[in-house]
Amino acid sequence: MISGESGAGKTESAKVAMNFLTDLGKLGGAKSDVGDVGESILACNPVLESFGNAKTVRNDNSSRFGKYVLMYFALDKDEIFGARIKNYLLEKSRVIKVADKERGYHVFYFLLRGAPKELLKDLCLTDAKGERLPISAFNYLKTGGELPEKHDVDGWDELLRTVKNLGFTPEQIDAIWRCCAATLLLGQIEFDKISFKDSDSGVIGKI
User: Fold this and answer.
1) Radius of gyration of the chain (CA)
2) Which phi and psi (to 5°) does residue 126 adopt?
3) Backbone φ/ψ region at 172: left (φ over 0), alpha (ψ -120 to 50), beta
4) CB contact at 8 A, 100 and 106
5) Which end of the chain is more exposed for a tag (fewer CB within 10 A), N or C?
6) Closest Cα partner for 96 from 108, 88, 87?
7) Which residues lie across from 68 on neighbouring strands?
8) Which pTM does this prediction carry?
9) How far apart are CA 65 and CA 49, in angstroms?
10) Vertex 174: Cα angle to 173 and 177 (nearest 5)
11) Contact call for residues 29 and 59 (beta carbons, < 8 A)
């Protein structure tokens, strides 16, 4: 168990520990389409961090969720033969409400900065001319917690490579991007508040 306050290095320490256990030995026998078990466990990290980590005032890659990894290790062969990963306490509010100088989850920035313009246009995330929109154009991403563009472009490349290596189908990958885009577009909706005698209700003003 790795514990500590925010920014103490729990995420990086967990990576070092898992890399060490994986390097002790490789899975013998048959291998799956996505490689051996140890490599598959490590390959999950970019996906989990993209959708669960964010920049905070203390840490550029702060985990906003808990992760419990149970690794099955064969002592007689010095190799990992299985694992279970359980995520918990995901900070869902970070999607729509982020403190000043912080960011939402990395995946939104990866998508906007790293994805090809053709994909962004298909997801309705470009301007009228089909050009890439700045991060500040999206209401959920306006807090000013910026990281270098290269960080997000490299993050996109790694995320895309990882989901493919883990065996996600093209249809599943497309569905992931559409869910991310839908979340950002929902944040662009503005509501006008109107009052009734018995209750308050909201109606869409403009998008």
Assistant:
1) 20
2) -120, 170
3) alpha
4) no
5) N
6) 108
7) 86
8) 0.80
9) 9
10) 90
11) no
- Say which amino acid occupies 205: G
In whole angstroms, give the CA distance from residue 103 to residue 62. Answer: 10
The rounded distance, in Å, linking the Cα atoms of 8 and 93 is 23
Cα separation, 112 vs 141, in Å, equals 11
Do 135 and 146 form a contact (C-beta atoms < 8 A)? Answer: yes
The angle subtended at Cα 85 by Cα 18 and Cα 77, nearest 5°, is: 50
How many alpha carbons lie under 13 Å from residue 169 in its C-beta half-sphere?
3
Q: Can you spell out the DSSP letters for 42-95?
A: HHHHHHHHHHHEE--SS-TTEE-SEEEEEEEEETTTTEEEEEEEEEE---GGGG
pLDDT in tens, 88-112: 788 889 999 999 999 999 999 999 9
Longest CA span, the chain: 73
Q: Which two tokens stand for residue 183?
A: 């979340």
Structure tokens at 121: 């246009």
Residue 195 above 50 pLDDT? yes
Contacts of 72 (CB under 8 A, 6+ apart): 80, 81, 82, 83
The predicted pLDDT at position 118 comes to 97
What is the b/e burial string over 37-75, where b = at least 16 CB atoms within 10 angstroms of the residue's CB?
bbebbbbbbbbbbbbbbbbbeebebbbbbebeeebeeee
